[in-house]
């Protein structure tokens, strides 16, 4: 039996990925291009059209019923536009209209990349079965998304769950977003590495100064490396506790490169969470590592498209 | 024509108010008792039963179809219990079951007091017409509630919107809740007054050291009083911006005694909001004073009951 499919696009500052996905979240066809992030807007769009072209060229395309897009933000789902921080050629760029044209008028659903990851984790990953969840990506930046009352909560513009840019330190360091003391400014991979270096941590002979190298040093017992992860964990805990206190989530799922640090992150995170999540209704809050891999963005974009497409019933978002 | 009514209860640490309310939010009958807050649980419940007794004794009672309760928190709507911080005799107290018995089995809807205020402001006050709103009470404590996608968002336990206990200062002062740097620990009336006194502010001849007296001094130009309100405004702004960044609200409504300070609060608050609400999708966020008066808790409790009672259609929550 030939069931309907959806097309999914995962648009980031490094790559543009596309796929045809079935109602069970299986990827049947893939396409990918590097993002020409520093080029003008039309050049970036041509890369997207190349990816779409590979999908429409397949015999499977006749079964595609809708398109889901998860894009680096900010996005504006109500206007159908995107303004990814790392793609300066796109400011209020009418991505939904362009993708609709490139797909002969299919329905196009746009969400932010943090929301897409959340849709994937809720459908098939660590947030499955949870009606109220926060899913986060902690890597170069810190992003996220929310599930509330069993439904994805993208918000009116598709950006809800932007936990990386809530301030947990009123008078903290200035963040590139313009605010101060943002979770991302403290807990992102580059900030974990920066703080370790400033504290006197020395990279190994390979010169690797990434957060992954700091995590390795922390596992080997380097106190400066441990302290940098503890500080990141404290900021993440304050942000997660704030989210739970505001909207009553019962699980926070953490993915991304920093999320892969394992106990070096999760042990101080669980400890700090007990300090900040104090009210009775948030004390049962748990944290868990993400389960979806690098396809989370594509699977989540597909889930968003399926949830708006009544002919499909596979997606639980 | 004799339309249906609902009974509303507003339960706080100082008073227990009750009312019969119609589908337009009009209060047709009132009853009130002081809360015997330091007595045992059954004594507190007898005060609630006295209030209910005044309502059931009225000929209007035959038209009552449901009961809405807004209670000081934390509450647990899923269990039907309440544990108000200022009523130590009630811990996991089965209020819903007791009220059901006292009203001959009417349907009982329980929400936290911040959620009740929000229901009232959304139905008839400053948040009317806004599909995504935060409503706050800033007085002895700082409470709140959320409207998301046009609906009240009480959360699974009825406590969502607890903005007073999100941390905006990771390593800030210890809060009675156990966390650090909570919005309430910085912005509540008693904390505004404490900070002014610590900074050298001197009360007038009447010896009034309330936040209202600090506000009056600030209006007269006292720099320490002004600074204490600016600091409260900064904490409120960080908390409001965090909420908007997480769930995409477009208005924050502020009531309570401190909310009545007017420009002394709202001018620095709007300024600070521009510092913390920086992402494109939160820049249009506005703040406004609450419009509902002291009946907000009763009207909101009524709204919650009406929204669960299909025979009524007056409440827009």
Automatic annotation (TrEMBL), chains A, B:
Signal peptide: none annotated. Belongs to the ROK (NagC/XylR) family. InterPro entries: ATPase_NBD, ROK, ROK_cs. This is ROK family protein. Pfam families: ROK.
